[in-house]
Amino acid sequence: MPAGDIARACLLIPAAWTLFEWLRSWVLTGFPWLSAGYAATGWPTQGYAPVAGVFGASLVTLVLAGMVWIMARNRDGRAFAMVSFVALVAAGEALRHVEWTQPRGAPVSVALLQGNIAQDLKFLPERYARTLETYAMLAEETRAKLIVLPETAIPRFHDRIDPDQQAVVMVHQHRGDAGARDRQGLSVVAEPDHQPAAVGPRPDGVGGAVGAQRVLDAVLE
User: Fold this and answer.
1) In terms of residue numbers, what domain contains 130?
2) 173 φψ region: left (φ > 0), alpha (ψ -120 to 50), beta (else)
3) Does residue 104 belong to any structural domain of this protein?
4) Which of 32, 38, 68, 171, by CA, is between 20 and 30 Å from 21?
């Protein structure tokens, strides 16, 4: 039995679209950008993100789009679509006002650095040292306690990074004036299994050592 307009527009198509986004996020190493759920930022549907993640927000966004189509094209299902639309939007707005997290400890100053290295230059071996020097210079210019560099700021696999190279030490460890003595740098590189890892100085402060752990672990610490 063929599905009706309401089932197709509000269930089948949104579910299929969301499934495709999920598959796209990990198949062939993944491309998890530009999901429909990101459009929920600043709107009532944003409230679903803490509960169901970006894919849940995608599903709700697409369901709402299907309901708009039903209201415009299907007279029989118009009342159902209008009531459901209002209910979903109202629930999302209510969820936006829930405090899902609580601050802990004193605020920490954070600097996000972007070296603006062109993609066609970033991975050239002859450009490697200059790229590190660029980020080392940017890191030295900020007074933030935590310095976060973008993904592939150090454009090599973690096991191929020379921890004793001066620029690497400068990027990850800042020992200038007294105010900067406890600052630490954090960048993201790829492990040999292509998984991202957070990289920073070892707790003992040895300049020649670069420690790594999964990005999630680093954020939760």
Assistant:
1) 110-220
2) beta
3) no
4) 68
Q: Which residues contact 190 (CB under 8 A, 6 or more apart)?
A: 152, 157, 158, 196, 197
Q: Are residues 197 and 132 in the same domain?
A: yes
**pLDDT tens digits, 113-134:** 888 888 888 889 898 888 888 8
Q: What does pTM read for this prediction?
A: 0.65
Verify that 130 and 51 share a domain, yes or no.
no
CB neighbour class for 191 (10 Å; exposed up to 12, middle 13-18, buried from 19): middle
Nearest to 131 by CA among 103, 159, 165: 165
CB of 31 within 8 A of CB of 24? yes
Looking at residue 45, its pLDDT comes to 94
Q: What is the pLDDT of residue 68?
A: 95
Residues 128 and 210 reside in one and the same domain: yes
Based on the fold, state whether residues 115 and 15 are members of the same structural domain: no
Establish if 85 belongs to a structural domain: yes
Which whole-number Å values give the CA distances from 168 to 26, 52, 140, 182, 188, in the listed order?
30, 39, 13, 17, 13
Q: Are residues 46 and 75 in the same domain?
A: yes
